[in-house]
Amino acid sequence: MASEPSTQSRVMFQAGDKTEEPAHRKLGKLTVKYNRKDLQRRLDIEEWIDGQLHLLFDCEEEEIPELEIDIDELLELTDEGQRTRLQELLQECRKPKEDFINGLLYRIKGLRKMSGPLKK
After folding, report:
1. Per the similarity annotation, which family is this (predicted)?
2. pLDDT (tens digit, 9 = 90+) per residue, 92-117?
3. DSSP code, position 59
4. Does the residue 82 lie in any domain?
5. Is 21 contained in some domain?
6. Which SS3 state, helix, strand or coil, does residue 79 take?
């Protein structure tokens, strides 16, 4: 068998092109579904929230009470509902929180609600 190289089987890999194409398609859907500026604005707001919570609770990240401020949930509420919800979430905070609430409500004005993840 070693003397007849033409009878040995060959292995060909063609999957390389097929695997890259779906990943490219997913990226295309993501950029169409979510505007890059909206994503950046939302990220900036979340970072601002994180920094403000450190100041409000005056402690390290590990010591901040379990607190989740859901921007999409707030966007579904009226202006007064947003303010009430934030006051409920921040009831454990002993520092004045009106500046934080006003700042957050100002920042989320005009922000659009994001839909859930894409389903296949």
Report:
1. Belongs to the PP1 inhibitor family.
2. 888 899 999 999 999 999 887 776 54
3. S
4. yes
5. no
6. helix
Residue 3 lies in a domain: no
Who contacts 71 (Cβ-Cβ below 8 Å, separation ≥6)? 42, 45, 46, 108, 111
Q: What is the pTM of this model?
A: 0.63
Tokens of 113: 């609600």
> What residues have CB less than 8 Å from 33, skipping those under 6 apart?
115, 118
* Residue at 90 is within a domain: yes
53 with 64: CB under 8 angstroms? yes
Q: Are 63 and 57 spatial neighbours (Cβ–Cβ below 8 Å)?
A: yes
**Residue 72 belongs to domain spanning:** 36-109
Q: What is the reported pLDDT for 39? A: 86
Report the percentage of the chain scoring pLDDT > 70: 61
Q: Per-residue pLDDT tens for 49-74? A: 988 988 888 766 666 667 889 999 99
End-to-end CA distance of the chain: 49
Surface-to-core class of residue 98, CB atoms within 10 Å of its CB (0-12 exposed, 13-18 middle, 19+ buried):
exposed
